[in-house]
Amino acid sequence: MNASVPIKHTQAESDLFNRFERAKDALPGSVAVAALREAALNQVREKGLPHRRVEEYKYSDLRAFLKSAAPLADVADISAARAVLVAQDTFGELDRYKVVLANGIYLEDLSDAAALASEGATVTNMSDALAGEHSAQLLGSPKAGPNDGVIALNTAFVQGGVVIEVKAGATLSKPVELVHVATSTGAQVTRNKIVLGKGAKLRLLESFVGDTGEGELNAVFDYDVADNSSLAATRLIVGRTDAARLLTTIAKVGAQAELKSLGFVAGMRFSRNQQFVEFKGENSEAKIYGVTMAGGDDLADQTLIVDHAVPNCNSREFFKTVLDGRAKGVYQGRINVAQHAQKTDGEMMTQALLLSEEAEMANKPELEIFADDVICAHGATSGQIDEDLLFYLRARGIPEDEAKTLLVLAFLSEAIEEYGEDNVTEGLEARVRGWLAGH
Amino acid sequence: MLEIKNLHARVADEDTEILRGVNLTVNTGEVHAIMGPNGSGKSTLSYILAGRDSYEVTEGEVLFNGENMLEMAPDERAAAGMFLAFQYPIEIPGVATMEFLKTAMNAQRKARGEDVLSIPDFMRRVKAAAAHLNVSMDMLKRPLNVGFSGGEKKRAEILQMSLLEPKLCVLDETDSGLDIDALRIVSEGVNKLRSPERAMVVITHYQRLLDHIVPDVVHVLSKGRIVKTGDKSLALELEEKGYADYIDTAA
Question: By Cβ atoms counted within 10 A, which residue in A360, B5, B188, B204 is the most buried?
Answer without folding.
Answer: B204
